[in-house]
Amino acid sequence: MAAKLEKLEGNKAKLEINVPANKFEEGMAKAYQKLKGKFNIPGFRKGKAPRKMVENFYGPQVFYEDALDEIIPQAYLDAVKEHELDVVSRPEYDVLSIDQKDGVVVTATVILKPVVKLGKYEGLKVKKPVEKITAKEVDAEVNRTREQNARWIDVERAAKNGDTVLIDFVGSIDGVKFEGGSAEDQTLVLGEGRFIPGFEEQIVGMKAGDEKDINVKFPEDYTPEFAGKDAVFAIKLKTVKEKELPELDDDFAQDVSEFDTLADYKKDVKKKLQDRADMRAKAEMENQLLEAVAKGIEVEIPDVMIDDQIDYQIQQMSYQLMYQGMKLDDYLKYIGKTLQDLRNDYRESAQEQVRMRLAVEALLKKLEIDPTDEDIEKKYEQLAKEANKTVQEFKDTMSTQEIDYFKERVAMEQLFDYLVSKAEIEEVDPKKEAAEKKKAAKESAKKEPAKDSEKKAAKKTTDKKEKDAGKSKAAKE
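Above: the chain sequence. Below: its structure as tokens.
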């Protein structure tokens, strides 16, 4: 099979593909086998008429569509491979001629991945957050672990914020119970604000065994069925429990870690927090580098690539909603948007994602970054060692998808290593920067009212001048 290539404007290309008669005949034979059961030919049981009889009765064209479906996709793939095209769209076919002796001539119009012109990628200026973990942060992390290991003890006193209560409740609106408004043995931590406003506050002060009706109002931004409506909940308080925190001592350290002393446990906590901070700094720096490289490229991105990325992002969102027990259609109704609205919302981020991907691919090619089997195996060994596992044990924890993309992961690390080695790096204190931004925001907020008052004063002055001028003019007249 031969294929002619014609490059068109807008990253398009047209392939003219000649499928020989013998390949077309193979397609016709398969089409006959697929369709023969549909034909009624006099003198033959249904589906038993020879192909020649069917063609004589209905014409050979009866098999053309299915025959083309059998042969064109492979012929197209062969043509793409022959011309080494990087296609980003589905082909649009146009059959020019069909002849059982001469074969088939068909065109396939496709959109190609755009050519990327790289900008600057060496000497990029980036900020590296350098965060030093403080004793206060270590204590906060230790206290979080302490909270997670707390015990809940039954108490006889009145419930207060921070307590966990067990309740039954029945809700009603205008005296009528509503769906989803009742529950038994519902656990609730008072003060966390997980229920509608006013609900938890009215349980504070109740004791185990108490029953009470509480009045609440659903927020205006609640689901349309209940938004803004008054409701009454009949509450029965079953138990009140208070949190008992473990003592912060060596026994605690032994219970929650592999260390014998609290001091050693805290050292380990500090190390882990520092490792996380360093990883965040690395990720932040890598993002800055990628954004800078992507911003510097020149490229004409086809709409189909952006649309495909939007499809992917919506699909991921749909999966996340599914795990939460919600369908995408129901979510769209809840937020009052259409699918097209959602696509429009995603368009800008999708375009940036595609732009970044094209920039990375172009730079990997430019720098000839292609990890070897040895590079990949070394990375497996490193990660396995960090996880205290053998390489095989580590691989067993990975999904098929993670293994498939592992080479790409190694390539990205090599790319980042290169970009960082060539970058101009300024170390900054993220906490100090955050404090300065907060201070600047406060100062800006203070200046705004002053500006408003200045405008009002200026307006009053102008109005007064105009008024005086009017009086003067009237006097002259």
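The mean pLDDT is 91.
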